[in-house]
C-alpha cells in the first residue's frame, strides 16, 4: 500500500512511495505530529541518482520489520536534497560536526523543533565494518529519547549553537596575515596551493576518489591568461585530457559520470548529473579557446550534445540526472564484454575497438569493461599501420553502432526535475559555447532554456522558483538559482545582443541584494530573508559540486554592475570577496568559482561594443569574432533585435557603424580604439 509520498512529484520521493515506512514529506504537518506525539523525527535525505540511497531503501526502508521499528518510535520524514538543498545543507553540516564526515543517504534524528541530536549517513541492515545496524541505531535513539531526554535536549542545543556560529563565522586567524594580502597575492597563493595538490601522472587533485572540479580548472585557466603562468595552464590541460580519456566519460553517448572512485579516472560512480556536464562542457570550451586543440573542442561539443539529446525537456529546460543503476545494478547499462563488442562490430572491427578501449576477457569492473582510452591513439594508429584520421573514422563508426545497441538496454532512471540553478548553468554554457564555436543552434537552445525558466519557474508575484516537476513549481528559489540564472541571462545577452535578457538579469541582481544579502553580516545567505523559518538560516561560502550561491552572486553583481555601471553592486561584490579572503588563503580549492570572479576582476577590463543592423551578416560575423578568443575580462555589448531596450547600456553611447557598415569598438579600461570592421582583425585585437 502506498504511503503519503505517492502524492509527491519528486522522482526520489516516489521511489519510496511503496515503502512500509509511514513517510511524511518535509513540512509543518510532520513537525506538528511530532510535537503532538512527543516523538523525534527521523529525517532521511537523498536523491534519485544516489546508489547508496537505493541500497538503504532496499535493505531497510522496504523491510517490514525495520519499518515497524521506525513507525513505532519516530515521525519519519523523507527529503529530496535536490528539491530542498537548504534543508540538506543544515543537517549535512550537523552530521559532519557530529561524525567528521557526511554523504548520502543522510540520516538525522531531530527534536520536534527541528534541532538535530544524532545522525550519520548509510547504516547497514546488520552490523558491518564497525558500523552498527540501522535497527540498532533506531533502538538506541528511541531508548535515549524515552529515558534521557535532558541529555538529548542538551546535545541538540549544543549542535544548534554550533550551526548558528558556523553560518556567520568569519575566518580571520590565518597565519602570516594572508587575509590582509592584496587580491593579486591572494590569487597567486591560491594557484600555488592548488598546484601542490596536483597529480602529475593522472591529472586532477589529490588521490582517490577524484572529483572533476571544473571550477578550479576555470580558475587556473584565468590565472594563466592574466599572468602567463605556464604551470596553471599545464595542470588544467593535463587534467582535462586525462578525464576525457578515462572511464568517467561516456565514450559512446558523450557526457560525464559523477566522479571517479580511483585515482586514474577509470571507475566512476555512474550517475550522470546535469550540473557536472554543464560545468565540464564550459571548462573544455575555455580550454579549447586557450589551446586551440581540436580534441578539447570535440569533448565540449559531445558533452553538450549528450545533454541536448538525453536531458533536455521538450520545452527547453533540462532534467536533473540519470541514475547510476539499471536492472538493480550500478553501471550495468554502460559496461561491455568482449563477446558483446564482437557481436556488434564483427571480429576485425571488434578487435580494433577492444584494443583502443581496453576491453578484455578479465575486465576492469566486476568482470565487465568500462570503456576508456589507456593508450595514445596516434601511437595505436602507427602500430595498426593506419593514418590517425582513418583510425578515428573507424572508431567513430564503431561507437555509433555500439551506442545504438546500448540504447536498447533497460535504461537508468531519468530524473525529470528541472532545477533552476542547474538548468541555468546549462543555458550559460550553451550561450557561451554557441558564441565561441559559431554554433547558432546552441544559442537557440540557450534561448529556449532561458524562456522556460523565466516563464514556468515563476510564482504569481513573479519571483523565481527553485524546481519544476511535471508542471508543479512551488519551492521558492535559493540564492544559487537567482544568481545562476542572472549570469546565464547576461551570457545570453552577450551571445545575441538581444536586450530582452537584460531587464530580468538586472531584476535578479536586485533580488539577490534585497532578499539574500545581509548588510549587518556583510554576507550573502542561501535562503531568502522572507523564506521558510528553518532552525538556522543556511549560508555556504564554499563551492561543492556546483558553485556556491555566494560566488555566483558575486559574479552576477560584478558583471551586471560593470555592464550597467552600477558601482554600488560592484562594491557589495568586492566586499563579499574580501570577507572570504582568509578562507581562500587557507582552503583555495574550496573557492574555485570565487577565485575565477576575482581573476576576471584583476584583469584589465576589456569591452567589445558591436554596432550594426542586427540582421546584417557582417554584424553576426563581428559578434562571432568577439567571442572566439578566451578573454575572461571581456564584456560584449551592442545593438540587437528590438533596439537598445528599456535598460540603458552606457557602453553604447557614442558608438556608431562606419560608413561602410557594422563596426566593433574594443575598449581597454574604458579607453576605446578606432572602429574595426574585419572579423579576423577583431580576433587578433582581442588576442586570439
What does this structure look like?
Helices cover 50% and strands 9% of the residues. By secondary structure, it is α+β, with helices and mostly antiparallel strands. The protein has a five-stranded mixed beta sheet with strand order 1-3-2-4-5, sandwiched between helices. Strand 19 (663-668) and strand 20 (671-672) form a beta hairpin.
Outline the secondary-structure elements.
Layout lengths: L10 H4 L9 E2 L2 H10 L3 E6 L4 H11 L2 H10 L1 E6 L4 H15 L6 E5 L5 E5 L13 H14 L1 H20 L14 H14 L17 H14 L2 H16 L13 E2 L7 E2 L2 E2 H18 L2 H17 L10 E2 L2 E2 L2 E2 L7 H8 L1 H11 L19 H8 L3 H19 L7 E2 L2 E2 H18 L2 H17 L10 E2 L10 H18 L5 H15 E2 L4 E2 L24 H16 L2 H13 L1 H6 L5 H11 L3 E6 L5 H11 L6 E5 L24 E6 L2 E2 L6 H7 L3
Parallel strand pairs: 1-3, 2-3, 17-18
Antiparallel strand pairs: 2-4, 4-5, 6-7, 8-9, 9-12, 10-11, 13-14, 15-16, 17-19, 19-20
Helix pairs in contact: 4-6, 5-7, 8-9, 8-24, 9-10, 9-11, 9-24, 11-12, 11-17, 13-14, 15-16, 17-18, 17-19, 17-25, 18-19, 19-20, 19-21, 20-21, 21-22, 21-24, 25-26
In a few lines, what is going on in this structure?
The protein is α+β, with helices and mostly antiparallel strands and 688 residues long. The protein has 26 helices and 20 strands. Helix 19 packs parallel to helix 21.
Amino acid at each position: 500500500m502506498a504511503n503519503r509520498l505517492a502524492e509527491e512529484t519528486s522522482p526520489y520521493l516516489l521511489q519510496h512511495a511503496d515503502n512500509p515506512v509511514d513517510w511524511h514529506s518535509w513540512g509543518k504537518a510532520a513537525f506538528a505530529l511530532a510535537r503532538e506525539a512527543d516523538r523525534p523525527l527521523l529525517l532521511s535525505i537523498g536523491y534519485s541518482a544516489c546508489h547508496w540511497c537505493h541500497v538503504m531503501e532496499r535493505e531497510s526502508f522496504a523491510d517490514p520489520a525495520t519499518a515497524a521499528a521506525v513507525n513505532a518510535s519516530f515521525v519519519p520524514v523523507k527529503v529530496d536534497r535536490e528539491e530542498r538543498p537548504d534543508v540538506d545543507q543544515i543537517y549535512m553540516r550537523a552530521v559532519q560536526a557530529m561524525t567528521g564526515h557526511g554523504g548520502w543517504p543522510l540520516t538525522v534524528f531531530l527534536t520536534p523543533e527541528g534541532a538535530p541530536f544524532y545522525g550519520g549517513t548509510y547504516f547497514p541492515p546488520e552490523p558491518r565494518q564497525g558500523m552498527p545496524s540501522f535497527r540498532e541505531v533506531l533502538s538506541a535513539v528511541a531508548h535515549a529519547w524515552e529515558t534521557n531526554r535532558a541529555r538529548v535536549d542538551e546535545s541538540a542545543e549544543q549542535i544548534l549553537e554550533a550551526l548558528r556560529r558556523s553560518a556567520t563565522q568569519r575566518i580571520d586567524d590565518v597565519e602570516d596575515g594572508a587575509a590582509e594580502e592584496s587580491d593579486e597575492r591572494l590569487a597567486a597563493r591560491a594557484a600555488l596551493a592548488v598546484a601542490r595538490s596536483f597529480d602529475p601522472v593522472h591529472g586532477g587533485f589529490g588521490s582517490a576518489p577524484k572529483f572533476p572540479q571544473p571550477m578550479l580548472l576555470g580558475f587556473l585557466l584565468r590565472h594563466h591568461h592574466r599572468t602567463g603562468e605556464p604551470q596553471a595552464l599545464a595542470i588544467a590541460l593535463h587534467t582535462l585530457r586525462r578525464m576525457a580519456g578515462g572511464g568517467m566519460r561516456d565514450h559512446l553517448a558523450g557526457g560525464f559520470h559523477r566522479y571517479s572512485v580511483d585515482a586514474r579516472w577509470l571507475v566512476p560512480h555512474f550517475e550522470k548529473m546535469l550540473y557536472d556536464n554543464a560545468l565540464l562542457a564550459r571548462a573544455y570550451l575555455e580550454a579549447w579557446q586557450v589551446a586551440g586543440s581540436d580534441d578539447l573542442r570535440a569533448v565540449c561539443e559531445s558533452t553538450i550534445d549528450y545533454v541536448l539529446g538525453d536531458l533536455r525537456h521538450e520545452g527547453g529546460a533540462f532534467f536533473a540526472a540519470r541514475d547510476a543503476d539499471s536492472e538493480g545494478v550500478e553501471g550495468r547499462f554502460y559496461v561491455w564484454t568482449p563477446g558483446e563488442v564482437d557481436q556488434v562490430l564483427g571480429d576485425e572491427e571488434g578487435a580494433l575497438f577492444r584494443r583502443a578501449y581496453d576491453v578484455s576477457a578479465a575486465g576492469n569492473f566486476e568482470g565487465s569493461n568500462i570503456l576508456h582510452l589507456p593508450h595514445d591513439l596516434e601511437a595505436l594508429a602507427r602500430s595498426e599501420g593506419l593514418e590517425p584520421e582513418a583510425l578515428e573514422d573507424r572508431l567513430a563508426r564503431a561507437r555509433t553502432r555500439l551506442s545504438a545497441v546500448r540504447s536498447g538496454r533497460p535504461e537508468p532512471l531519468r530524473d525529470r526535475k528541472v532545477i533552476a540553478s542547474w538548468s541555468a548553468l546549462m543555458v550559460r554554457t550553451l550561450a557561451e559555447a554557441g558564441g565561441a564555436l559559431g554554433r547558432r543552434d546552441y544559442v537557440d537552445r540557450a534561448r529556449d532554456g532561458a524562456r522556460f525558466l523565466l516563464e514556468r519557474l515563476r510564482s504569481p508575484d513573479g519571483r523565481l522558483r527553485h524546481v519544476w516537476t511535471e508542471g508543479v513549481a512551488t519551492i521558492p528559489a535559493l540564492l544559487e538559482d537567482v544568481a545562476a540564472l542572472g549570469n546565464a541571462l547576461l551570457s545570453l545577452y552577450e551571445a545575441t545582443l538581444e536586450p530582452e535578457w537584460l531587464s530580468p538579469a538586472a531584476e535578479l541582481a536586485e533580488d539577490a541584494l534585497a532578499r539574500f544579502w545581509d548588510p549587518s553580516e556583510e554576507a550573502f545567505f542561501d535562503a531568502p530573508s522572507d523564506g521558510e523559518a528553518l532552525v538556522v538560516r543556511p549560508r555556504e561560502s564554499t563551492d561543492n559540486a556546483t558553485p556556491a550561491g555566494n560566488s555566483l552572486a558575486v559574479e552576477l553583481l560584478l558583471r551586471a554592475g560593470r555592464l550597467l555601471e552600477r558601482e554600488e553592486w560592484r562594491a557589495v561584490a568586492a566586499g563579499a570577496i574580501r570577507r572570504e579572503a582568509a578562507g581562500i588563503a587557507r582552503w583555495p580549492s574550496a573557492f574555485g568559482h570565487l577565485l575565477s570572479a576575482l581573476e576576471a576582476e584583476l584583469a584589465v577590463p576589456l569591452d567589445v561594443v558591436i554596432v550594426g543592423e542586427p540582421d546584417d551578416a557582417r554584424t553576426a560575423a563581428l559578434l562571432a569574432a568577439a567571442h572566439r578568443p578566451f578573454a575572461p575580462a571581456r564584456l560584449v555589448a551592442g545593438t540587437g533585435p528590438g533596439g537598445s531596450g528599456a535598460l540603458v547600456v552606457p557602453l553604447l553611447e557614442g558608438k556608431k557603424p562606419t560608413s561602410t557598415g557594422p563596426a566593433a569598438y574594443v575598449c581597454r579600461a574604458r579607453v576605446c580604439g578606432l572602429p574595426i570592421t574585419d572579423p579576423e582583425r577583431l580576433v587578433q585585437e582581442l588576442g586570439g
